[in-house]
Amino acid sequence: MNSPSPFAAFGNLPPLFNLHTLTFLHLPITMILATMRLIVIDSIAALFRSEFENAHSDLKHRSSLFFKISGNLKSLARKFDCWWC
């Protein structure tokens, strides 16, 4: 019997909220429990383009959120000895 995905509960939330919650809360725990060493994120920039307008304030917030998420992913990669680019 297959166990449900630990990320199935994110189905009804906005994509950026999913990514933020995934990278800061669930991913570190999953990496410890499942000894995960490979994470593939396809087209992260598309999530940011679809969620924000091109207004100056949106661009600033979008950049800030992008760097927080990418910085956390790099930190997790170093902590768990994973390869990243």
Summarize the helix and strand pattern as letters.
HHH
Distance between the termini: 35 Å
Kindly give the count of domains. 1
Structural class: mainly alpha
Question: How confident is the prediction overall: mean pLDDT?
Answer: 75
Transmembrane segments: 20-40
Protein name: DNA repair protein XRCC3-like protein
GO molecular function: four-way junction DNA binding
Keywords: Membrane, Transmembrane, Transmembrane helix
Helix and strand topology:
Layout: H1 15-34, H2 44-51, H3 56-79
Protein name: DNA repair protein XRCC3-like protein
Keywords: Membrane, Transmembrane, Transmembrane helix
GO molecular function: four-way junction DNA binding
Task: Describe, in plain words, how this protein is organized in 3D.
- It comes from Senna tora.
- This is DNA repair protein XRCC3-like protein.
- Keywords: Membrane, Transmembrane, Transmembrane helix.
- The chain crosses the membrane at residues 20-40.
- One of its GO terms (molecular function) is four-way junction DNA binding.
- The radius of gyration is 14 Å and the shape is elongated.
- α1 packs parallel to α3.
- The chain has helices at residues 15-34, 44-51, 56-79.
- Helices cover 61% and strands 0% of the residues.
- It has 85 residues and is an all-alpha fold.
- Residues 1-10 have low confidence and may be disordered.
- It contains three helices and no strands.
- It has one domain (19-80).
